[in-house]
Amino acid sequence: MKDCEVNLAWKVEKQLNLKSYEVEVSQGNTSFTKLSEVAAKSEPGYLFTFALTNAIKASLLYVRIKSIDLDGSNRYTKTIMVTGLCASKMQLAVFPNPISDAASLTVAAKEGMFNGTYKVSILSSNGQLVQQREIKLSAAKTFPLAITRLSAGKYHIDIVSPDGTVPAVLNFEKL
After folding, report:
1. What is the spatial distance between Cα 9 and Cα 11, in angstroms, rounded to a whole number?
2. Which of 11, 58, 148, 171 is 20 to 30 Å from 104 by CA-CA measure?
3. Model's pTM, two decimal places?
4. Is the pLDDT at 6 greater than 60, yes or no?
């Protein structure tokens, strides 16, 4: 997946009596929806790109290809999983906010999941770097962020994704 688009490529052998291919998606790997139909053309491989619209975005998206013969019979490929959300469009939240006596905050993904190594920086309200670290996460909806060394005040959390984008700048206040 790149820039909110999924590039789907597949190779084929012996396309005898083949009419078409249907690209199908599912948000829960149970009920699949036809996204598009690609006519069979005696080629060794195909490339199909589709955008992740709001209708098909999910934490994980399941994709499969249905091949349809001229007689109407069909077969399915193995189902593959792709991240269903664009990293740059990730919506994040921080809680509790404001915070008084807890040792850490929780950073949460409202949509999507954290996958990879993130660079997390805490800056004071005047932009001074107070704390910075890298966090490795795998299929996580939340992660804790220690704030024990911070004095009372307003802060910003900058999070840089593995692809270099900044999905959000979060604000919080320590009382």
Report:
1. 7
2. 58
3. 0.50
4. yes
